[in-house]
Amino acid sequence: MYNVAIVGAGPAGIFAALEIMKLKPDWKVVLIEKGERIEKRKCLLREGYEKCPTCKKCGLLCGWGGAGAFSDGKLTLTPDVGGHLVDYMSREKVEDLIRYSDDLYLEFGATEEVFGTDINTFKELERQAALAELKLVYSPVRHLGTERSLDVLKAMQDYLEDKITILNNSVARNLIVECEQVKGLVLDNGQEIRAEYTIIAPGREGADWLTSEFGRNKIGMVNNAVDVGVRVELPAPVFEPITSKLYESKLIYHSPTFGDEVRTFCMNPNGEVVQENYNGIATVNGHSYAEQTTNNTNFALLVSERFTEPFKEPIQYGQHIARLANMLAGGILVQRFGDLLDGRRSTPERIKSSILTPTLACATPGDLSLVIPYRQMTSIIEMLYALDKIAPGTASRYTLLYGIEVKFYSARVKLTNELETDGVKNLFAIGDGAGVTRGLLQASASGVHAARTICAR
Predict the structure, then answer these.
(1) Would 394 disulfide with which of 22, 125, 388, 398, CB 3.0-4.6 Å?
(2) CB 83 within 8 A of CB 227
(3) CATH of region 2-116+139-222+412-456, choose from 3.50.50.60, 3.40.630.40, 3.30.1330.10, 3.90.45.10
């Protein structure tokens, strides 16, 4: 019998465990993770495979550290970016949780440097963005880089290893709910884990399971916006005047044709485009490193659509569009912006004749207009032209668009202000998989908040 069972060893689950051990060092805690220990995680595509073998458990997404382990490790130090925690508590409390979580990262070896703190520089870039009808969000960023992210997460794993029970390669199958109160969970091997409190933190990769399991237990869910888009890759000098000052710029645009919100996400100066595998579906993402660099910069352009009744399956909607790209390309599809505008597919010959060398070599040249719905595609094109006004060269015919990038955090659990589920006592849902956050630092902060609530009881 455990005091607390935690599902998912991403930042939300890890920080929940760290805080519980700080406040209740004598408690018995079990952390259940479907992937490997961090030192055993690997991606075959990064180790020389020409094509992603679509592993049953994607090494980039599953394992200690979650999807953030191999990301570029950006800690966004503001409540305005990376989640919805301000919907559950005051802004001041969220700011305190972010500061506390950031200090924990520093304690375990995060870099001291923070980008984007010069308010005068921000104001000037904000002015330039406004002239292009773009909103620039103030978002100071601590950038770890993939290498440092792994070191920090490894230090956290080593610290917790002799304090809690860590079950790697273990998959949660069902919750145990009795008399509207959680009593633990059952693993896929049939083992029962009994616990007084259960924290669900499965990350985006586990969002589909969370939706299904919470639906089975009649735990309330609401639809988040569905985020579908592309990853843009262009020469690093195009965005260098901005990235050299802010590192990552969070820009929001409302497309004139449909009024949809389009935003930049996960900007990676001198980084690389990578492929991920969500339960057999190939999607695209981007990384950047502390030491090694490329000549390109990449970022996502995501179009947010909020659906109403009777639509209840935002995750399946995103998966369907991603599968269409997979069907045409056998994986990730890439197209030059000029080819998209000319109404023709990109070919290997056209890609080779460009001034830009793709960093995701296994992407298949093709036609994104056969995949992305007209409404979202129109909004993406209009956003690229808006960005071209503050970063000339963005709308170049050589700019590469990779598809599909989709964020599977679209199902949001109905929660109390303590992040406890509405209807099942002692069950908490945190992090990206619960639709509460969409970034490393707010996910970590949600773990701290849930842990404090539990320990206070």
Answers:
(1) 388
(2) no
(3) 3.50.50.60
DSSP string over 344-411: ----HHHHHTSS---S-TTPEE--GGGTS-HHHHHHHHHHHHHHHHHSTTTT-TT-EEEEEEEE---E
Residue pLDDT, tens place only, 151-197:
999 999 999 999 999 999 999 999 999 999 999 999 999 999 999 99
Q: Which helix (H) or strand (E) holds 456?
A: helix 440-456
Which tokens is 13 given? Answer: 């689950």
DSSP secondary structure string for all residues of 109-126:
T--S-EES--HHHHHHHH
What is the rounded CA–CA span in Å between residue 357 and residue 392? Answer: 19
Question: Is residue 228 within 8 Å of 374, Cβ to Cβ?
Answer: no
Look at residue 231 in the predicted model and tell me its pLDDT: 98
Question: Which pLDDT score, from 0 to 100, does residue 228 have?
Answer: 93
DSSP state of 320: H
The SS3 assignment for 342 reads helix
Question: Cα 220 to chain center, whole Å?
Answer: 23
DSSP-derived secondary structure for 61-112: TSSTTGGGSSS--EEE-STTSSB-GGGTS-HHHHHHHHHHHHHHHHHTT--S
Dihedral sign, Cα of residue 160, residue 166, residue 172, residue 178 = negative
Q: What does the alpha-carbon distance between residue 226 and residue 329 come to, in Å, rounded to a whole number?
A: 23
Cα-Cα-Cα-Cα torsion 134, 135, 138, 141, nearest 10 degrees, comes to -50
Q: How many alpha carbons fall within 13 Å on the CB side of residue 205? A: 27
Structure-token match 């690093």, residue found? 236
DSSP 3-state of 331: coil
Each domain of the chain, given as residue ranges in start order, spans 2-116+139-222+412-456, 225-407
Judged against a pLDDT cut of 80, whether residue 355 lies above it is answered with yes
Q: Are strands 135-137 and 250-254 parallel, antiparallel or unpaired?
A: antiparallel
